[in-house]
Amino acid sequence: MLSGRRLDLLDPSPLDVEIADIAHGLARVARWNGQTSGEHVFSVAQHSLLVEAIGGALPGGDGPAVRLELLLHDAPEYVIGDIISPLKAAIGDAYKSVERRLLGAIRRRFDLSAPTPLQARLIKRADRIAAHLEATRLAGFSEEEAGRYFGRPAALPEGVIAEIERLLVSRPTAEVQQRFLTRFEALASAHSAERV
After folding, report:
1. DSSP code of 171?
2. Which domain does 141 fall in, by range?
3. pLDDT score, position 19
4. Tens digit of pLDDT for each residue in 123-142?
5. Count of alpha carbons within 13 angstroms of residue 62, beta-carbon side
6. Residue 195, pLDDT score
7. Is residue 4 part of a domain?
8. What total number of domains does the chain contain?
9. Any alpha helices (H) in 83-172, and if so which ranges?
10. In a domain, 139, yes or no
11. How many angstroms separate the CA atoms of 8 and 110, rounded?
C-alpha cells in the first residue's frame, strides 16, 4: 500500500488497514469496468458515497455505525478491485472468502461490529438502488433492463434526491478521494463519540 503497509490478502490484519489506502484505491477503481459516460470513470468511492446517501435516507439507515457500514460496504475492493457479479459467481467461494476476511479486518480496524441481518438487508437494498441508478444514468441500461437485474428502486425522500443527483456525476479522482475521506472522518468521529 502507498502508506507503506503490507496487507496479507489471505490473513489480513486490522493493523495494516489505513483509511487513506482505502480512499486512494476506491477512488481509482472503476465501476462497470469503466463503461460509463462522463469525462472521468465512475469509481467505487463514488458508488460508496452514493450507497451511504441512499441507505441513510431509508428506514433504519440512521446512526453513524450503520452509515459507516454503508460507506465501507465495498471497501475490500481497494485491494481486490471491482469484479462484476457474474464473474464473482463463477469464481465462487474463493473470491468471497478473501472479500469476507478483508471486510472483517476493515471492521475491526474501525471498531465496527458485523451488521445485524436487518442492517445487512438495508445495505443490500441501498446497493441495488444505487446500481439501478448508475446503470440507467451512467452505463446505458434501459429502465426495463436495469429493473430485471437490480429491481425497481423505491421512491426516496425528496430531501436526498438533490444529493443523489450530485453524486451521479463522474468526477476527478483526487476530488472523489477527498470527498470519501471527508465523509469517512465525519462518520468515524460521530461513531467514536457515540461509543463513549
Report:
1. -
2. 19-194
3. 98
4. 999 999 999 999 999 999 99
5. 1
6. 81
7. no
8. 1
9. 85-91, 93-109, 117-137, 143-150, 158-167
10. yes
11. 18
